[in-house]
Amino acid sequence: MSQSLMKVSGLGKDYHLNGNPISILRDVDLDIREGEINVIMGPSGSGKSTLLTLMGLLDAPSTGSVQLMDKKIPHFSQEKLTDLRLQYLGFIFQDYHLVPNLSAQENVALPLLLNKDMKKQEREQISQDLLKSVGLGHRFAHFPTSLSGGEKQRVAIARALANKPKIILADEPTGNVDTETELKIIEIFQQLKKQNVGMLIVTHNEIFKQYADHLYILKDGYLSKGVSQVEGF
Ligand SMILES: Nc1ncnc2c1ncn2[C@@H]1O[C@H](COP(=O)(O)OP(=O)(O)OP(=O)(O)O)[C@@H](O)[C@H]1O
Ligand SMILES: [Mg+2]
């Protein structure tokens, strides 16, 4: 059986609003394994981005635990969490999170700065190749303000792949693209599957149902199993 890359157990998240607790996620269990595409669908506001934020080690859960490579994530320092993120995780944000004063190519190269031995020239080569692979070979020097929504999304995808992560966490990765680009992005995910990367994609896009090894529905903070077309046939 394929190896578990990231596992969450009994995960819950509460926010406090005007002193009143509101539960956004309740008792979520999920296992991201090598070479598997996991898809979560669910209505707007159901907690999909919140779940990804917890799994991306960007926020701490209220209850439950996150395990990365069979090791429980304790309350690490921010610095240690950043190291783990850079080493294992590729995060594609719903709203891209590109650095405004860096070019497309510099944005993609950012995670590569972790590797102190890597020369600038190699960083440039890798980030340019990644941008080409998402169809942005002609946009290396553009800053985020001079990129369209779909182009920014593709820069964000290229950046998430820069460190060759074992796990991809993607928040609505085809939210802003045309059909041709959508297919290109799906092709990238399928390639990553072949390379044994484990993926969690949260989306409203029904097309992902046919590529999901495991399909889940998130509703009112509860995660339940849906029937993906891969599992169903
Ligand atoms: N910091 C916060 N404080 C209070 N409530 C919050 C906070 N962040 C998110 N929420 C609430 O949590 C709920 C879940 O938000 P989340 O962004 O996870 O939804 P989502 O499923 O990703 O929605 P969408 O499909 O629209 O992206 C929403 O009702 C939102 O208002
Ligand atoms: Mg969201």
Question: How is this structure best described in words?
Answer:
It is a single chain. The chain has about 230 residues and is α/β, with parallel strands linked by helices. It has a domain at about 5-100 and about 170-230: 3-Layer(aba) Sandwich (Rossmann fold), CATH 3.40.50. Helices cover about 30% and strands about 30% of the residues. It contains seven helices and ten strands. The strands form two sheets. Strands 6-7-8-3-9-10 form a six-stranded mixed beta sheet. It has a four-stranded antiparallel beta sheet with strand order 2-1-4-5, with helices on one face. β1 and β2 form a beta hairpin. α4 packs across α5. The longest helix is centred in the C-terminal third of the chain and has 16 residues, at about 180-195. It is globular, with a radius of gyration of 17 Å. The two termini are about 20 Å apart. The model has no long low-confidence stretch (mean pLDDT about 95).
How many helical elements? 7
Helical residue percent?
Answer: 25-40%
Q: Which molecules other than protein and nucleic acid are bound?
A: adenosine-5'-triphosphate, magnesium ion
DSSP E strands, number: 10
How are helices and strands ordered from N to C?
Answer: EEEHEEHEHHHEHEEEH
Strand order of the largest sheet: 6-7-8-3-9-10
Mean pLDDT across all residues, rounded?
Answer: 93
Shape: globular
* Gyration radius over CA: 17 Å
Strand content: 25-35%
CATH architectural group of the domain at 4-100 and 170-232:
3-Layer(aba) Sandwich
Ends apart, CA distance between termini = 20 Å
Q: Specify the biggest β-sheet.
A: 6 strands, mixed
Structural class: alpha/beta
For CATH, the homologous superfamily of the domain at 4-100 and 170-232 is named as P-loop containing nucleotide triphosphate hydrolases
Q: Which stretches are low in confidence, meaning pLDDT under 50 for 5 or more residues running?
A: none
The CATH topology of the domain at 4-100 and 170-232 comes to Rossmann fold
